[in-house]
Write a structure and sequence with these properties.
This protein is of the alpha+beta class. The chain has one domain (3-184): Aminopeptidase (3-Layer(aba) Sandwich). The protein is 30% helix and 33% strand. It has helices at 14-28, 35-39, 43-55, 120-135, 149-157; strands spanning 3-8, 63-70, 74-84, 103-111, 139-145, 161-171, 174-184. Strands 1-2-3-4-5-7-6 form a 7-stranded mixed beta sheet, with helices on both faces. The longest helix is centred in the middle third of the chain and has 16 residues, at 120-135. It comes from Micromonospora chaiyaphumensis. This is Acetyltransferase (GNAT) domain-containing protein. GO terms for molecular function: acyltransferase activity, transferring groups other than amino-acyl groups.
Amino acid sequence: MALGFVRAARPEDAGEIARLQLATWRAAYRRILPRHVLDNLDEAYLARRWSAAVQEPPSGAHRVLVAVEQAEQSYLVGFAASGPADAEALAPGEPADALAEGVAAVTDLLVEPRWGRRGHGSRLLAAMVDHWRSDGFTRAVAWAFDADTATRKFLTSTGWEPDGAGRALDVDDMLVPQVRLHVGVPTEPAAS
């Protein structure tokens, strides 16, 4: 019987987080992002970035969490990162104060496709909500590719809604539309 749980990322997880990110992007975004961009992503560079995010977060409210599937041995199968909303969470032309204090921003929420539909995404999201609540956040936002129906469906199934903001990322001269979703952070944990 396999068990799943979420824990804080450790420095030694950085390489596996980078591998998960690349594997997930290459599988999930192959029809959204240019193939040569996905093929040329540097795993070592991503690992260094994740190492810094884990070891030197900008604040105590910036967190990287990992999902673990444990059977005969443990596997990192997904990860999530969030922190206080900053300029990266804003839509083009939005004033700097559009996302008030108390708003968390999800920068990453990925589960490797081969480990999908086992509750890892839900556990990652629930763990983030617990942290947001303890950090005093009242709302959270996340950007999703407009064509990433899996992520959008997952988030909306848990109460997230589009907030009307959109943007297009310039990925090697290709504009890739995104939509911003938001959700209120409940003040109390959900009843089991």
